[in-house]
Amino acid sequence: MESRRPYRLKVRAQRQAATKHRIVQAAVDLHETVGPAQTSISAIADRAGVQRHTVYAHFPDERSLFRACSGHWAATHPLPDIDGLELAAALDRIYEWYEGVETALALFARDARLYPDVTAERERARGQMADRLAAPLGRRKAVRAAVGHATAFDTWRSLVRREGLTRRQAVDAMVAFVAAV
User: Fold this and answer.
1) Distance between CA 35 and CA 32 in Å, rounded?
2) How many CB atoms lie within 10 A of CB 162?
3) Is 88 in a helix, a strand, or coil?
């Protein structure tokens, strides 16, 4: 009889993990389409095919659910690998990534006030990327600021979406901007 108990616990744990994953995926899907501010626990439960109390059983509060969602989203949409790239190639890769995740990032930016700690973590990661790109260009504060501006989502969005530049033109403009400081 004891040999069956660990098996049942294992199966139950697997079911719980699968339910938790469905909840997180449902929340991510909603965050990407309507944004965190417009995502309710009821909508998450409906999309995951569970009851509201099941969501709360896995995530006692919205903050823990949001952190799980953010972690899942970051794992499935990692920042581009820019190690060893010069500024132009790195910006091209970053801007290509922005093109692929634009809708989600715009919604996350719109709702950033809800979870400032998660927003700060994302910004730190982007800042570290800018630090790595700026390092070979010199130690001047203005150079680092220019590279930071060039790597920002809002910069890409302004240049490409509002001003109508192509990705290549936006990269070239930012490389010239950094070189001018």
Assistant:
1) 6
2) 9
3) helix
Does the reported pTM lie above 0.90? no
Using CA atoms, how far residue 146 sits from 9, 55, 126, 171, 180, in Å, is 55, 43, 13, 13, 9
The alpha-helical segments, DSSP class H, found in 4-163 are 4-33, 41-48, 52-58, 62-76, 87-110, 116-134, 141-151, 153-156
Question: Tokens representing 74?
Answer: 């970051």
Alpha-carbon distance of 80 to 6, in angstroms, equals 41
Give CA–CA dist 128/60, Å, rounded.
32
pLDDT digits (tens, 9 = 90+) for 35-52: 999 999 999 999 999 999
Contacts of 155 by beta carbon, 8 Å cutoff, 6+ apart:
149, 174
d(C-alpha 53, C-alpha 69), whole Å: 18
